[in-house]
Write a structure and sequence with these properties.
This protein has 10 helices and 22 strands. With 345 residues, the protein is an alpha+beta fold. A hairpin with a 4-residue loop joins β10 and β11.
Length: 345
């Protein structure tokens, strides 16, 4: 690995590591700077779920289609980086399954009744923590534990200074700092954009039990299979920045998850992460308008779903390639329009 990277990525969540992996695959030497420890991506269930996200959030046809295109990038991305992708679909156990099937059909998703539930093959999943470790180990990516305190630009490139005084420089930097407030030294328009990202606390609880064969979702949450049980979640607490588990939420998640699966099990330590969301619910990805500064931020709860799309858009922008079809929808320079109130599916 070169001691003088072409690109420095700040943040080792799924958007940062997806961008780093894509850039490394294109021949760039990439250094990832991250404080270490859990983050929103490691505290996620790893669902790649355009159908259920569209159903539950009452998304528009265009928004649902974008999520589906993001999902469609996953097979090639997983193959390129040795990730295991689970294509087992998902169930919805809510009211009016026939109406839910009709809504999914109208959005372009496959869905059918499965007894009293709905089944869609269009939702997939990945083991989030395992995938993060694998993306960190991609050839050409060097990960360093460091907390970046500020950035500076001398006209030729960017310098990152850590809290402990260490410094790194590169011609290009990718800001993938989740829901964190703006770093010192960011240009004012970028700092304002970063500070407008809404923090959302999410919590889920692992339970050791006999796992179901697929994700099961209902009005009270979900149960996602893992190697040794299920992950029961999740929550969306807007405006919360402290990654502290709520014991009442934990109890509800366990009860709901075991009810969905019909299993008995032993709960583990809750996982908490702070997600970031833009006003329109889509990530902020691509060139920032300042030379050499690129963004990979604010995926709401669709970081895993849209990781490959964001990584591709960031890499294209950094290399000066013609933007792909979905780049404008995720551009940091787009005009944000507050979406209509989201509905429960």
């Amino acid at each position: 690995m070169s001691s003088s990277p072409d690109v420095i990525v700040i943040g080792a969540g799924v958007l940062g590591l997806s961008s780093a992996a894509e850039l490394a695959a294109r021949g760039h030497a990439v250094t990832v700077l991250d404080p270490g420890g859990p983050n929103a991506s490691s505290a996620a269930a790893g669902m790649i779920a355009p159908a259920m996200e569209s159903l539950i959030d009452g998304l528009s046809l265009d928004h649902a289609a974008l999520l589906k295109r993001g999902r469609d990038l996953w097979p090639a991305f997983a193959s390129a980086f040795g990730l295991t992708l689970y294509l087992d679909g998902a169930e919805w156990r809510g009211t009016d399954p026939d109406g839910a099937v009709a809504r999914l059909h109208a959005l372009g998703f496959a869905a059918e009744r499965a007894g009293e539930a709905l089944f869609t093959p269009d939702d997939w999943r990945i083991e989030a923590r395992i995938a993060l470790d694998q993306l960190s180990d991609v050839s050409g990516v060097s990960r360093i534990e460091a907390t970046v305190a500020r950035l500076s630009n001398d006209g030729d490139g960017w310098t990152m200074t850590a809290r402990d005084g260490r410094r790194w420089s590169a011609p290009s930097v990718v800001l993938a700092t989740g829901a964190a407030t703006a770093l010192e030294g960011l240009p004012e328009p970028v700092a304002a954009l970063v500070n407008a990202i809404e923090p959302i606390r999410g919590q889920l609880t692992p339970v050791t039990c006999v796992a179901p064969g697929r994700v099961i979702r209902g009005p009270g949450g979900y149960a996602t299979p893992t190697a040794d049980g299920v992950l029961c979640g999740a929550t969306m607490q807007s405006g919360e920045r402290e990654p502290v588990a709520d014991p009442d939420i934990t109890a509800r998640q366990i009860a709901n998850g075991l009810s969905l699966t019909g299993a008995q099990g032993q709960a583990g330590e809750p996982r908490v992460g702070i997600r970031g969301a833009s006003p329109d619910g889509l990530p902020i990805a691509g060139p920032s308008g300042t030379p050499g500064l690129h963004l990979a931020l604010a995926p709401r709860r669709n970081g895993w779903l849209l990781g490959p799309m964001v990584g591709g858009i960031v890499a294209d922008g950094l290399e000066g390639r013609a933007p792909r079809a979905d780049a404008a929808a995720l551009s940091p320079l787009r005009v944000f329009i507050q979406p209509a109130a989201r509905s429960a599916g």
